[in-house]
Amino acid sequence: MHLTVLYRGPLASCDYDCPYCPFAKRRDTPAQLRADRAALERFTGWATGRPEERLSILFTPWGEGLTRSWYRRALVELSHAPGVARVAIQTNLSCRTGWLAEADRDTLALWCTYHPGQTPHERFLAKTRELAALGVRFSVGVVGLPEHLAAARRLRAELPGHVYLWVNAAEGHRYRDAEAAEWTAIDPLFPFSRDPHRSAGRPCRTGSSVVSVDGEGTVRRCHFVRDMLGNLYDGSYRAALAPRPCPLAVCDCHIGYVHLETLPLYDAFAGGVLERVPTAEALADPGVFLGLPVRTTAT
């Protein structure tokens, strides 16, 4: 089977302090860092020891993983593992990039987020150019706050043309049509992020071909549904894998709603679901390609 795993260990420290970010911000103690390292090494051992399976892995840490050597090592090791089809991580791209030369760039990918005010524009842009020169597959994104609009426009104008710049709707922010049109001009797929998606009772791949795993190996269907399916390391989760409807009223996070079967995002992001890289067709004509109305002008 092809199983997609969203891994989130205990790491919660970050070198940025974005006021809009829902992730915990704190300094991990040495003991906490050791525990996170041990948990990641255990998970990596599990994943690399299953050459007969096909795995896609996305690391979604609460903090910034790539400033830690064990995350960089894990990504390189997993990229070369025969059973791993894709390994990706969400990152603010504050780390150095040279280590990526050791990875299999056909397998490894990065989901990068630009945080205006936390890093200089020139520094972040230089990192994206380093990734492009290394042949790393990646996307770049920004939170769609009004104060970020000018920075996002500048970034879009200066990024390599093949790099997708996505926009996440800011949590709790309601977008008027005119405001949404400005963000859609930057990200043609922003309409999918603009409003939460009704999900209650609707079929979702999570819990069947997609699971969430924490540092203890506890398996859940996704990060947002707390019911346990079993444990990764004793194999008890396997008996619980089955198609099931979403029990939540809405889903408003891309790493969740991308797996809803009622949305066409597996087609829009074919080959790039984990790293959030869409097809050229989806970007060129999202309304026709996705079969959904895309509001690009003010009403």
Quick structural overview:
With 299 residues, the protein is an alpha/beta fold. Helices cover 28% and strands 22% of the residues.
Radius of gyration: 19 Å
State the separation between the terminal residues, measured CA to CA: 46 Å
Model regions low in confidence, pLDDT < 50 over at least 5 residues: 293-299
Question: How many independent structural domains?
Answer: 1
What general outline do the C-alpha atoms trace?
Answer: globular
Q: What is the H/E order?
A: EHEHEEHEHEHHEEEEEEEHHHH
Task: Set down the secondary structure blueprint.
Layout: E1 2-8, H1 30-48, E2 54-59, H2 69-79, E3 84-91, E4 108-113, H3 121-134, E5 137-144, H4 149-158, E6 165-169, H5 177-184, H6 191-194, E7 197-198, E8 203-204, E9 210-214, E10 218-222, E11 225-231, E12 244-245, E13 250-251, H7 254-257, H8 265-268, H9 280-284, H10 286-290
Parallel strand pairs: 1-2, 1-9, 2-3, 3-4, 4-5, 5-6
Antiparallel strand pairs: 7-13, 8-12, 9-10, 10-11
Helix pairs in contact: 1-2
Organism: Streptomyces mimosae
InterPro entries: Radical_SAM_STM4011-like, rSAM_sf
Protein name: Radical SAM protein
